[in-house]
Design brief:
Chain lengths: 421, 158
Amino acid sequence: MNRLQEYETLMTELADLPPQLSGTARRARARRRGRRLGFSLGSLGSVCAAFVLAVNLMPAFAQACAGVPILRELAAAVAFSPSLSATVAHGYAQPVGQSQTVDGVTVTVEYVVADAQQMEVFYRTDGEAGPYEVDCDLEDLEGNPLTGYTVSAFTAGSDSGDDLLHFTVHFTEMDVPDTLVLQLRLRKDDGPWSAAPYTFSIRIDPEKTAKAQVLSVGQWVELDGQRLKVDRLELTPTRTALYLEGDPDNTAWLQDLTFRFTGADGTVYERVDGAVGGVGQPEGGVYTYYFQSLYFAEEALTLWIDGAAWLQKDAGPVTLDLADGTYTGTLPQGVTCLSVDEEEGQPVIWVESILHRTPFALTYRDETGAERTFSKLSELQSGETRRFRYFLEEGTAGIVALLPVYTSLSHLEEPLSIPLQ
Amino acid sequence: MTEWEYLNRAEAAREKLYRTALMTLGSQSAAIDAVDEAVYKGYCGHRKLRQPEYFDTWLIRILLNVCRDELRRRKRELAVEALPETAQEAFDALPLKEAVRRLPEALRQVVVLRFFTGLTLEETADALHLPRGTVSTRQRKALTLLKLELSDGEEGTP
């Protein structure tokens, strides 16, 4: 066989794609999501604290639910969230009651609470003691994978299996469909995921959902020398979405916004009680922030903007020499020290800041310009100082480029107020 | 680039990615792992991709980086070395697939992207951050060493 024949044979071989390659993009998304879940488990304590607080602050709701056994249990499960509590109290919970057993562990999906863009799934595990980490993929009824959503969970399971647990499916690029299939997988202690998925077909009851109410605003405001248009609010039973646009002539991208709402009677709404705080494409100048639901608030509202985080459009990366710790570029506001240490033979970047805000992105560029991802990020607090440790990918050496998440922060002495009609 | 766009385009690019990884690493399982890793890394950074028209070359660049790391790891464990450009007889004695893998990295990347992944000269130059002329020169050298006479009509192709 000559080289050309060899080449043709080889190309024929290469045209045969192994079946394991199918779904590589979905695996990437699931893996990323797994990492996110890992971080969020740390907030379990604060969720429990919120649970106790909410039950005590909402006696009327607790009393209303107390006489109905299933609602009583659901009320306890959603007590950490004023939005979900109000949603359940107004009758938007839809019973499901489907169970499936895989590897000796039974999962029962008890309820879903859905509106136009978000679905809360309440379930319990029974069998081998937890806690479990949960992952979820969505398909349509024909088995086609759905895309354009993220899944978040505060708790991954309990030891007893008695508690009602939940996770949130947040649809970013489509509305919650009328019918869908949940493909759940569980795992314990970073072990293997369940051999087969738990499959649940869900039909969203239109009687148990509510359409979004849109409140048009269309008002421009100036903040830190940048112009922002408060475009509109979308109110649904489970959350509020605030849509903003930046002026193309702005010199900085909006990275974060601190805001709250007040009612005419002085009620203050200042919680981001959902799993997702904000999404959007900052570099497209369009921003969306999610907030506790104002759907059931009956009084006239005012939006208050208290501050913002900005990233200068011309901000370059901070380049750091891992060999001697010297760097060039401008550090984000509040960062007081940038240095390099070594742990187990690998360089680790230490960043000290007086602000509770992650200063650099989770991706960085190595010496060749290739984009890499930090293998781990940890945050320690010592007095007023925050210490962030960025663990580099194995084998990274030389000079790396760190990408600032923000360059400046503001806190307004006199907040901007925007009355909403 | 949105998550939806990324997932769809990454899934569509997997054939190109797989061919690139297989010709670089040699084994099917290593190639699948490398594609998975590259697609994951791409997923982590897809929102920063400013020019979606360069999606394929961007993702291939990430994949080449993953493959390079894997080859470095293997080099420590298995001591597999590339052959020097002067070892013409040794190249002749090897099957094509193995001969490609034993090319010096700079030549191997060009020949893999051009004739197995299916990138144009321009795309290859972009993926490797090299001038077009350098890609042309390396392509000629690689094909000469492999004794492979291929032409797709592009400038600089023998």
